[in-house]
Amino acid sequence: MAALGATAGLVIVGLVPAVGQATTPSAAPRAALQRELEKAINPRVPGAVLIARDGNHTVRLASGYAALKHRTPMRPGDRFRVGNITTSFVATVVLQLVAEGKLALDDTVESRLPGAIANGGAITLRHLLNMRSGLFDYLGDGDTTVTDLLFGKDPTHRWSPLELIAISNRHAPRFAPDTAWSYCNTCYVLLGQIIERTTGHPLGDQLRQRVFVPAGLRATSFDTEPRIAGPHAHGYERLSRSRLTDVTAISPTYAWAAGAIVSTADDVARFYSKLYRGQLLRPDLLDAMQTTGPMAAELKGWGYGFGLIKKPIGCGTAFGNDAAAPGFTAYAYSSKNANRQSVLLINAGDTTMAHEDNGRLQHVLRSGYCRDQQSRR
Hints:
Layout: E1 11-12, E2 21-23, H1 27-39, E3 47-54, E4 57-67, E5 72-73, E6 80-81, H2 86-99, H3 109-112, H4 125-129, H5 145-153, H6 161-169, H7 185-199, H8 203-212, E7 221-222, E8 236-237, E9 244-246, E10 261-263, H9 265-276, H10 283-290, E11 293-294, E12 303-304, E13 309-312, E14 317-325, E15 328-334, E16 340-346, H11 350-353, H12 359-375
Antiparallel strand pairs: 1-9, 2-4, 3-4, 3-16, 4-5, 6-10, 7-10, 8-9, 11-12, 12-13, 13-14, 14-15, 15-16
């Protein structure tokens, strides 16, 4: 639902055996989860990291390879591009500004960014946050302006937010504001601009000062350069029938406020834990964030709030995000109070996952979320 896969790079072919690492106070559930994670690794899915938590019990697992060229084992602390999990962070900053009286949910786009989009007087911040604006998603551009560059012409091209919005503005709205739902990267690029205009500071600085530091996220960054710093997983796309291409070195500016964050499974879990336990937002705004409306018709039981998804996950309802970035896929879900969490990060992107039986990975996610209930049966 978010970023499309991406670029030219090193082509690697070969079998990917599983390599596991784990820490947990409960060995039996750990071993079962490790086996399930290893079953999901194959020549199309190089590696994955799983964090599963129930109360004070946490399991950290890794399997497969972080980098295929040198057969580097995946580690639980490796950094990944986490795609549109970024929207949860950006929505949090917007709601903090609402709490400070600097923004209001019913402010119009026109009042905050005059002339930025057509019909900006009818589209509010609320419509941007819950993706009910009707704006065209610039990543769905029929001229493939962004994806052509990401798939090899110029993967490190630096996009400005205005360029991304201009692509959206070339297309008619998909529907009138607040009459339907559709995934909208354009919405969050606009919210990023509104944050910068309101605070007078770069979005990355605001994310760091308002979320990363207060939440204790030491391995999380809002990236603007192609290179991922520190120990990290390489991202892979299936750009031909039988081969994986390393697409790690792409410019994250193509996604900006809609998907440029790099993080670890532990930091993602910590962020949602701090958020859902009221340590980043006051109660009424957290409740507004977690209040969801219907999504696509085929996603029965799912809902979308402000930068997050609500979905049934096997032993209850969870809140978080399904995310994608070139070469990477991420799933991060927590119970409403964050007592139960499951975060699954995978170094395979959209073009790979389109050919992959995602049921095995979803089973790993559900097993991580429901593991203690299953172990007591």
